[in-house]
Amino acid sequence: MNRKHVATEFSCAGVSIWDEPEDHSLYAYITMKADERSGAFVQWAMRYMRHRLLVVYELERNRYDLSSFFLGHNRSFCQLMEYCASTFEFETKTI
Questions:
Q1: How confident is the model over 12-70, as pLDDT tens digits?
Q2: 1 CB contacts (<8 Å, ≥6 apart)?
Q3: Residue whose C-alpha is closest to residue 38's, from 67, 83, 7
């Protein structure tokens, strides 16, 4: 996401390739400030991940919280987020 200039604030997955699913956190998330680029990324991720992605917009903090919709699926969430970031293209609109 950094390479695509989608700035994240916080993230947590508690996952390692050596972990057994029962040994790591049940919850994975990414938090990012809401702006035009992050909004476009959220839309891109929602189209690709569909029911696997839970998106919450916090109006008071002007940020998005993205998390795995399914508890215990944080490894696949991280892999899907990595794929979304690697395929994301942001086009600025010119008038």
A1: 765 555 555 555 556 678 899 999 999 999 999 999 998 889 999 999 999 999 988 77
A2: 7, 8, 30, 32, 41, 81, 85
A3: 7
Strand order in the sheet with 63-68: 10-12, 29-33, 63-68, 53-58
Which H/E stretch holds residue 66? strand 63-68
Whether residue 64 contacts residue 38, with contact meaning beta carbons closer than 8 Å, is answered with: yes
- Asked if residues 30 and 6 have their Cβ atoms less than 8 Å apart, the reply is no
Amino acid (1-letter code) at residue 16:
S
Other CB atoms within 10 Å distance of the CB of residue 54: 15
Q: How does pLDDT run across 61-88, given as a tens digit for each residue?
A: 999 999 887 766 777 888 888 899 889 9
Backbone φ, ψ for residue 80 (5° rounding): -65, -40
Structure tokens at 8: 């994240």
pTM over 0.85: no
